[in-house]
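Researcher: We're reviewing a set of sequences before deciding which ones to prioritize for further study. For each one, I'd like a predicted 3D structure that I can look through quickly. This is NAD(P)-dependent dehydrogenase (Short-subunit alcohol dehydrogenase family). If possible, include the structure in token form so it fits the rest of the review sheet.
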Amino acid sequence: MTTDFTGRAALVTGASRGIGHGIAAELLAGGASVAITGRKAEALAAAAEALVTTTGVSPDRVLAVPGNAGSAEDRARAVDAVMTRFGRLDVLVNNTGINPVFGALVDADLDAVRKIFDVNVIAALGFVQLAWKAWMEEHGGAVVNIASVGGLRSTGVIAAYGASKAALIRLTEELAWQLGPKVRVNAVAPAVVKTRFAEALYTGREEEAAAGYPMKRLGTPEDVARLVAFLASDAAEWITGETVRVDGGLLATGTLG
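Model: Here's the predicted structure for NAD(P)-dependent dehydrogenase (Short-subunit alcohol dehydrogenase family), in token form for your review sheet.
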């Protein structure tokens, strides 16, 4: 039981930067062939090139598939591309997430909230359905959904995002029950990770933001990536339906800061 992914193929959504990029690098380092998705083709191509450079893997082990996770056609195109290039799909990491709404839900634009749920929840389920039909139903595999501590405890600030991540956590449990024993489905729930996506939560006040964490620092993409790789690997072969916090101890304090 190891985190060796040699001979396996993975799809990581939303991987042009940040947590998704870190996860892709970790899986490549473990021996996997990895496809990454993202909305902006140029940024995604640059990310794929960077993965080859930083990990030293052969370029034929990295595939960039531009597309919008919220589009059923783009999701299908991504899975088809993985199957065409690698002939298999053993690991799916649903990392794509958006958060265009801050503040009280009673004032939230419902179209924006609907979009959050469409991308953060419905798209994740859509990718699972496609991966199941393309490979995992017959051969098995592992799914890891990127949730958030905001899905475990109310924040008041990123409330719509947190509600969508709570839904993703429940989706993870339902899928783990329904797709076992062939497919394991788990989630990870990060606190604030130093990425462009989370900049609004710490820019100009990082020391203050980190002070509430027992570990006295914010997270990095690598912190999340190592946990994702473990959950996707054979080393976690009896773990499914779990949401594992990677939060520097934040929730242990009884607050979200």
